[in-house]
């Protein structure tokens, strides 16, 4: 049981400069006994309102250096404070506020919300077990208008889909990776310096002057995972899900026009989805 959708903004001031972190937190616990379920005995139950207050107090006292460290702090507090907690899981996602700037000069207290993917993390721990940390990005909408096709697929009496060697590839990407047992990582360095998000964009798009051909949505997902694993040594396993958006060319013959893939409409439903989990052999065998 637990508390979902704890939303708040943490404002930190350094002189004139303001720093913001707006997050949404979900925290869930499993207790050493199920007596509240079986017997209606609530003596071990930590109220979800208390859980909400703990999250807010931690934000006030510790701040939010990174969402990963904040999730770790929440797990540690529950494990060290409440002996009846057998397992804790915390999810944190960050609202993508970016500081406004003009001619390279950053504004001291004004921000813009840029919907270019939502950074999130999960921390979970069993009592007497290691704390395991995951991080990821979701709601990342990507499109390339060529260098994508789908050919040579299985065909039978049910097949109506034509082969395509030049199509729009568009979808919403979810990526989640594991760091394994939590160690003293610089999570912001991994995010901003190692640039996991930029790895994803590079693998999806290819070189800026010519792109890279994608033989399928599945191949694109694998290319993203392989590039992240090759460049970011801290990542042990990466899961990727690409929910596809398809576009159909509008037939304009009755309007006396030739439409050479210039006007297309999205296919709202049903839509496709590709998912894959890829990891380092040593970690998977462990």
UniProtKB/TrEMBL annotation:
PANTHER family: URICASE
Subcellular location: Peroxisome
Chemical reaction(s) catalysed: urate + O2 + H2O = 5-hydroxyisourate + H2O2
Keywords: Oxidoreductase, Peroxisome, Purine metabolism
Assigned protein family: Belongs to the uricase family.
Pfam families hit by this protein: Uricase
InterPro entries: Uricase
Pathway: Purine metabolism; urate degradation; (S)-allantoin from urate: step 1/3
GO cellular component, one term: peroxisome
Single GO BP term: urate catabolic process
Stated role: Catalyzes the oxidation of uric acid to 5-hydroxyisourate, which is further processed to form (S)-allantoin.
Ligand binding (O2): 48, 244
Top EC category: oxidoreductase
Name used for this protein in its record: Uricase
EC id: 1.7.3.3
Gene3D superfamilies per UniProt: Urate Oxidase (3.10.270.10)
Annotated positions binding urate: 48-49, 150, 167, 218, 244
Binding site for 5-hydroxyisourate: 48-49, 150, 167, 218, 244
Main location class: other
């Amino acid at each position: 049981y637990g508390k979902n959708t704890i939303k708040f903004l943490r404002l930190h001031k350094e002189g004139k400069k303001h720093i913001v972190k707006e997050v949404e937190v979900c925290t869930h616990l499993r207790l050493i006994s199920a007596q509240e379920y079986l017997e209606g005995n609530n003596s071990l139950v930590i109220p979800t309102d208390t859980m909400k207050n703990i999250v807010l107090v931690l934000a006030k006292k510790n701040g939010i250096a990174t969402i990963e460290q904040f999730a770790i702090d929440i797990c540690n507090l529950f494990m060290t404070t409440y002996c009846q907690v057998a397992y804790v899981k915390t999810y944190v996602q960050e609202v993508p506020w970016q500081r406004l700037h003009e001619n390279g000069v950053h504004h001291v207290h004004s921000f813009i919300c840029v919907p270019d993917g939502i950074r999130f993390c999960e921390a979970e721990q069993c009592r007497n077990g290691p704390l395991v940390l995951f991080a990821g990005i979701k709601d990342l909408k990507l499109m390339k208008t060529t260098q994508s096709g789908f050919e040579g697929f299985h065909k039978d009496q049910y097949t109506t889909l034509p082969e395509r060697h030049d199509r729009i590839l568009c979808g919403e990407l979810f990526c989640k990776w594991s760091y394994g047992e939590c160690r003293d990582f610089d999570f912001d360095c991994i995010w901003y310096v190692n640039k996991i998000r930029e790895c994803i964009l590079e693998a999806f798009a290819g070189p800026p002057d010519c792109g890279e051909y994608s033989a399928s949505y599945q191949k694109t997902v694998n290319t993203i995972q392989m590039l992240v694993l090759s460049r970011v040594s801290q990542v042990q396993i990466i899961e990727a899900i690409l929910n596809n958006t398809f576009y159909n060319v509008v037939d304009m013959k009755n309007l006396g026009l030739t439409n050479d893939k210039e006007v297309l409409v999205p296919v709202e439903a049903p839509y496709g989805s590709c998912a894959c989990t890829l990891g380092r052999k040593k970690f998977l065998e462990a």
